[in-house]
Amino acid sequence: MFLDGLDQLDQNIIQLLMKNARMSYSEIGERVGISRVAVKMRIQALEKKGIIEEYTTIINPQKISGVVSCYFELQVSHDTLGEVIHRLERNEKITQIYRVTGENKLHIHAVTASNEELDQLIQDEMDHLPGISHMSCSIILSRIKDIKGLRL
């Protein structure tokens, strides 16, 4: 489906890494039927091509006491869109920025240490963004399904 440009072996390796990025080359090799060295070479080639971008640890903010995770929807004028994006990119509390279709031009995810810090983010940053005609903020109460990256 999405990996038509890759052979079946690379697809199998990627599927294993998506389930557990800490899996050793030896274990992957055992599961796909090639040597540890061959697995390492294939993974390095996938990294070099940019197919595999990074390996990361995902933290669930809802599991940390007091942490607030939320989404902002912003309607931004075309004239100020670039400036708004630039300002949001620099803010460490903003974790994701998406340019989207529809009424809202930007979909933003933020994580703060408390409700007070979220209030401060809104007052100090979000309320002062230029060209915003509408802004909404929804606090995430629980995570039901959250898939990172491409799933096969």
UniProtKB/TrEMBL annotation:
Residues 6-68 form the HTH asnC-type domain. PROSITE patterns: HTH_ASNC_1 (PS00519), HTH_ASNC_2 (PS50956). InterPro entries: ArsR-like_HTH (IPR011991), AsnC-type_HTH_dom (IPR000485), Dimeric_a/b-barrel (IPR011008), Tscrpt_reg_AsnC-like (IPR019888), Tscrpt_reg_AsnC/Lrp_C (IPR019887), Tscrpt_reg_HTH_AsnC-type_CS (IPR019885), WH-like_DNA-bd_sf (IPR036388), WH_DNA-bd_sf (IPR036390). GO terms for molecular function: sequence-specific DNA binding. It comes from the Bacteria. The keyword DNA-binding applies. Gene3D superfamilies: 3.30.70.920, Winged helix-like DNA-binding domain superfamily/Winged helix DNA-binding domain (1.10.10.10). Keywords: DNA-binding, Transcription, Transcription regulation. One of its GO terms (biological process) is response to amino acid. One of its GO terms (cellular component) is cytosol. PANTHER family: LEUCINE-RESPONSIVE REGULATORY PROTEIN, TRANSCRIPTIONAL REGULATOR AZLB. This is Lrp/AsnC family transcriptional regulator. It comes from Candidatus Anaerostipes excrementavium.
